[in-house]
Write a structure and sequence with these properties.
The chain is mainly α. The protein is built from nine helices and no strands.
Length: about 220
């Protein structure tokens, strides 16, 4: 009996470690996982630091955009205005075409054409007087309120750039004709009359109103 006990004692006093239980290993894993949140703020701080480091690179680009010359903006504005004017001119011409085909001339267009028709009639009287050698009568026919009314009508009826350019030409020719007739020079007045009629026809064609007038 004593021999059995003697054998058992050395076994119980042995210094060898017993293997860890599963519960002990789980505690170690939980401790390791619990330490991860301490690393997450560090990663976040590193990300913010990276963005702040990149900010000086991004800011000069925004300042460069702010320094774009105003001339570019002005050019865009001018193009937009030109496009708008062209669109309005096209719309107005379409309205005139519709009014002619559907119900004849509308009242607004009729009123705008009255000074133009008066100008044609006055030019015809002036031309007849010059043909007869009466420069004084021609000068009288070229004066009056119809000149001012005709100028106003050209502004209203000139929707396109071509029409505006032609209107300026006919007004210049008409002014030169008036001056020549007032000076009493028959030859100058006749040349001025031919030039005025030619520029008048060019403007009427550019304004697209030739079919609405008589005497040309």
């Amino acid at each position: 009996m004593q021999a059995v006990c003697a054998v058992a004692k050395p076994f119980a006093a042995s210094g060898a470690r017993a293997p860890r239980s599963s519960s002990s290993r789980a505690a170690v894993v939980r401790a390791a996982v619990a330490g991860e949140p301490e690393q997450q703020p560090l990663l976040a701080r590193r990300s913010v630091a990276g963005l702040l480091a990149a900010a000086p690179v991004l800011l000069p680009a925004s300042r460069a955009l702010a320094l774009i010359p105003d001339d570019d903006d002005e050019e865009l504005v001018q193009k937009a205005r030109a496009n708008r004017q062209a669109r309005l001119a096209s719309e107005r011409q379409a309205e005139q075409a519709f009014s002619r085909s559907a119900r004849g001339l509308d009242r607004v267009l009729e009123q705008e054409l009255i000074p133009v028709q008066k100008a044609i009639n006055s030019l015809a009287i002036s031309g007849a007087a010059l043909e007869a050698g009466d420069v004084k009568a021609a000068a009288s026919a070229l004066s009056g309120s119809w000149v001012r009314d005709f100028q106003s009508a050209t502004e209203k009826l000139s929707y396109t750039d071509a029409a505006k350019s032609s209107a300026a030409s006919v007004l210049s020719s008409l002014s030169a004709l008036e001056g020549a007739a007032a000076s009493g020079s028959a030859s100058d007045a006749k040349r001025g009359f031919v030039a005025t009629v030619g520029s008048f026809k060019a403007w009427v064609s550019a304004a697209n109103i030739a079919s609405d007038l008589r005497g040309l």
